[in-house]
Design goal:
The protein has about 325 residues and is an alpha+beta fold. About 50% of the residues lie in helices and about 20% in strands. It has three domains: about 50 residues, no CATH class; about 70 residues, Helix Hairpins (Orthogonal Bundle); about 160 residues, 2-Layer Sandwich (Heat Shock Protein 90).
Length: about 325
Amino acid sequence: MILPSGTKTILGSGVKAARTGTAGVVAVDAAALLGSEVPASTADDSAVRAAISPEELAELMTTFNGVAEQLQSTHCTLTAEVARLQEELREKNEQLQRSRELAALGQMAAGIAHEIRNPLGSIRLYASMLFHDLVDRPENQRMAGKIERATVDMDAIVRDVLAFARRNEPVLVEMDAEVLLRQAVDSCVSLLHGKAIEVEWKVALEEETARLALVDAGLMNQALGNVVRNGLEAIGESGRLELGIKGGCAGEVVLTITDSGQGLNAGNAEKIFNPFFTTKASGTGLGLAITHRIIDAHGGRISMANVGEGGVCVEIGLRLAGDPMMKDES
């Protein structure tokens, strides 16, 4: 359709606007809304006033502003959600990378341990025979005894390396997370004898079904026992060990072990789960590395951080027995 000179189509829906040649005023006419053309020569002041009332314009602007605010709010929400998911993805990728590195290191360590174990057994046997043959030479016998004890210590290290390298395939059963944690504490009760260490419990989940986790009882007792033992050793002669059970993300129950020790140095926080890393005077440095692998095998998570003026909180997240994803994996 050819429009008269000076007539312009706007809004792309047949709505026509008339523009005056001098004042540059654009008007929307009711006739234009019905599909008629409005010649520029008829677009006078009365046509401009008749286009839309102030009340209608105010209502239109209010609606527009409301929609704009909703869009802005939705945009902010989506931006925050994207940022959260990106951070969660980064953390998962870091955990996956650590698990792969530990698995590769475990395979290498297992090969070395197997190569060492056979000659080590021979050395131990010969040292024991030599010890019994040197009864008439006490000084030499003491030296043979030291060799035998050293081989026993080295064999313990080899066993720890093999335990770290072993592929964990949990046989999952339903267990109360509180029972698991109490069993781990019971396995370390000898470390409490003769010491002024207070053990405090904080169980935030009253319903047993909210505490039921799918775990391999033996492996999990080993993992939790390592963490509890580390906490008690960090406390020393006196202090407090706090054990807790609480809810976590959907389908998760969280166990916490908090000690009142000296805490972690900034440089050690990132290396604490690395194999052979330890701040103790003795030990292989494999306890927490083994714990990390066991938790990984359960599809869980473990983290460690300083708390308050001193001490460390270890947080372990385990999948609930009612989690369908965990059941499919098992």
